[in-house]
Write a structure and sequence with these properties.
Arc Repressor Mutant, subunit A, 3% strand, Four Helix Bundle (Hemerythrin (Met), subunit A), mainly alpha, 11 helices
């Protein structure tokens, strides 16, 4: 028998499937729906939530992609043995709010080793790709156009130069969620505040360190860029500097 779940009919203003996802995920995280428990059928869930079976189906698919449930052919949907640990996602339904931004910067701090590895492993071609992205940003600064895409391309080029497929995908994942936060720097207000110019100077230092294969300097420049980006967006210090002794202060 499906485990009991107290459900109230959801309201209509917000996307229905998202509300169903929140309710079911809340039941799973609270233990109301235990690992291994079979979820009620689409019809039963639809009746309890006051939504269509198509909405329930979409919510179940979302929970499955997030690693909260698993489906078995002919048996239905079940709570995963380790809910939420089979996938990684930032934000809610692809959206990142202001409260997430500081944490995302801290997460990006864990990825600053990409610059270190890029300095050790980059090829001449990869260095040229970074240079092309920097030149595109410089033109955008001079023309008053949007250089956010070139900014993304620069960081992807660094990740590619690590020759680490997992790191490339992680940086691409972060970039997908972080890309929108770069755009305010390229607005008129951002330009008047000098945001793209400051970021460009930081990018140039990263590139110079990678070019001369100075791994330690590349990592420091990447951390400085991270801290500067966080400060410019009002997210506060994103990472604490690691002194020469290796211990964080």
């Amino acid at each position: 028998m499906p485990q009991a779940l107290v459900i109230r009919e959801v309201s209509r203003p917000v996307r229905l499937s998202g509300q169903v996802v929140d309710a079911l995920r809340g039941g799973i995280e609270s233990g109301e729906l235990a690992p291994g428990a079979r979820l009620p059928t689409e019809q039963i869930l639809g009746e309890r939530f006051g939504v269509s079976r198509a909405v329930v189906r979409e919510a179940i698919a979302h929970l499955k992609s997030d690693g909260y449930v698993e489906t078995r052919q002919g048996a239905g949907a079940f709570v995963a043995a380790r809910p939420g640990l089979a996938s990684f996602r930032i934000g809610h339904e692809g959206k990142v709010d202001a409260g997430d931004l500081g944490q995302i910067f801290e997460l990006r701090a864990a990825a600053t080793s990409t610059a270190r590895l890029a300095a050790e492993r980059r090829t001449r071609g990869e260095l040229a790709t970074m240079r092309a992205a920097l030149d595109s940003m410089a033109r955008a600064i001079g023309d008053g156009t949007d250089g956010a895409a070139a900014d993304d391309a620069f960081h992807r080029a660094i990740a590619t130069a690590t020759h680490n497929g997992y790191m490339q995908r992680f940086v691409e994942f972060l970039g997908h969620h972080f890309s929108e936060s770069r755009r305010p720097s390229w607005t008129d207000a951002g330009r008047r505040a000098g945001r793209p110019q400051a970021a460009q100077r930081e990018h140039e230092r990263i590139h110079a360190a990678i070019e001369r294969r100075d791994a330690a300097a590349a990592a420091r420049a990447a951390e400085d860029h991270l801290r500067g980006s966080a400060a410019r967006l009002g997210a506060g210090p994103a990472a604490r500097r690691t002194p020469k002794g290796g211990r964080k202060t």
